[in-house]
Amino acid sequence: MSGTIIEKPPEAVVSNSDIEQIIEMMLKLSPEHIKEAADFIAYLAERERKHKIFVEETLAAAANPEKITFKNSKALIKAALESVSENS
Q1: Among 1, 27, 62, 84, which residue's Cβ finds the most Cβ atoms within 10 Å?
Q2: Strand, coil or helix: what is 86?
Q3: Every domain of the chain and the residues it spans
Q4: Are 1 and 35 in contact (CB under 8 A)?
Q5: Per-block average pLDDT, block size 10, for the chain (88 residues)?
Q6: Cα-based angle 30, 34, 39 (whole degrees, multiple of 5)
């Protein structure tokens, strides 16, 4: 497994009985399948983390809209390309 998940899920989403049932199922798996399950859980946790960041950034952008105007499409494309080259 690539890392340890330390964030606790909201109680409304996962109950202790759900976790206990998952643990019982995991105890029946081979070491190879346990590794696969752990990798998949790490993948899901990473997706959840990225989604949370996306939502936070989207809400922040919606709360603080910046309007940038360009006199034509060439100026827009030029600004976009310059922005990409600055971030590289």
Answers
A1: 1
A2: helix
A3: 16-87
A4: yes
A5: 54 78 95 96 96 93 82 92 76
A6: 150
